[in-house]
Amino acid sequence: xxxxxxxxxxxxxxxxxxxxxxxxxxxxxxxxxxxxxxxxxxxxxxxxxxxxxxxxxxxxxxxxxxxxxxxxxxxxxxxxxxxxxxxxxxxxxxxxxxxxxxxxxxxxxxxxxxxxxxxxxxxxxxxxxxxxxxxxxxxxxxxxxxxxxxxxxxxxxxxxxxxxxxxxxxxxxxxxxxxxxxxxxxxxxxxxxxxxxxxxxxxxxxxxxxxxxxxxxxxxxxxxxxxxxxxxxxxxxxxxxxxxxxxxxxxxxxxxxxxxxxxxxxxxxxxxxxxxxxxxxxxxxxxxxxxxxxxxxxxxxxxxxxxxxxxxxxxxxxxxxxxxxxxxxxxxxxxxxxxxxxxxxxxxxxxxxxxxxxxxxxxxxxxxxxxxxxxxxxxxxxxxxxxxxxxxxxxxxxxx
Length: 400
Fold this sequence. Notes:
This protein is an alpha/beta fold and 400 residues long. The protein has helices at residues 3-6, 38-43, 57-64, 97-107, 124-127, 131-145, 162-178, 197-209, 227-246, 250-255, 274-286, 327-333, and strands spanning 23-27, 33-37, 46-47, 68-75, 85-86, 90-91, 111-117, 149-153, 183-189, 215-219, 257-262, 264-265, 271-272, 291-295, 361-362, 367-370, 373-377, 381-382, 394-399. Strands 3, 4, 5, 6, 7, 8, 9, 10, 11 and 14 form a 10-stranded mixed sheet that branches. Strands 16-17-19 form a 3-stranded antiparallel sheet, with no helix packed on it. Helix 8 links the parallel strand 9 (183-189) and strand 10. The longest helix has 20 residues, at 227-246. The radius of gyration is 21 Å and the shape is globular. It starts with a helix and ends with a strand.
């Protein structure tokens, strides 16, 4: 996913086709069993259990009805090697902290998936010798926690490493074969046309190895996106890529497609509100997509001036909200009605600056409005449309 997923969580650094109901059985701390449908693993939002001010999963479950969590991230050791760690520093083999979180969730009738990779850090696909060794490292995680779901979050810098991606896809295939019923998602960056060159190469690698996960999910944020319409357009384009790559028809492609969003303000200053999540949720359910998740529960709460100050945060959303507002959309995707909550507060209106002009000259910190958003110039610019390029001269300051 993106920088905040790694940099703000460096110390340490979950799905089923829409019509399916295959159940997996988990064991809670008391030894009792509870069955979760794969739909819950498809709806599980990301949670960093050791960093970014981890919220209490039990409180989220009580408030929203959520049952599944996507725990992030398992990486290679910071010093190198082919053994799994949390965030590159905490060995899975000796872990008790994450185990405690998992026991809490399972004691309340829920379950977890584990996500491997993420943005930044060293991935096991980079350090293990081959696919078999990579799979053996991940099998340690599956065995230790009794997992029924796992997520391969394939992005930078591993994303650009052909050998590493070959190891990861090969490992995913081995784990799928050796753990019958294991739910496997593959998550990768999104672009306006669906996914970029490296994403397409990853799909071709999966095809060449004969590997089909439960879903391929894209992350349509941090790429010049602006609200739900741009995200659903990317999902439509990604569906076409899945069709052309694997020879699937449209419905089959949607049944293997997933969405992984970012709630509130993204790393690049995009904003995704509760209304945006509802629009994408409606798209995902109407097209019978396999997965709907987001980054992250650590951010699913209101910022205070002291902990945000108008910046993207790893511990709050930077938009007006009640705690766990965004988690309720995952609950709805799983097919459950969340408990009644207090209505979401309406953000105070923000006035629009003077309309952007193609002929005007703007210098650093000048402001203008365009497309219903206010924008601030990052440097001297003229006749460069705000939001036209992710790396352009304009910073999106939000809706007005």
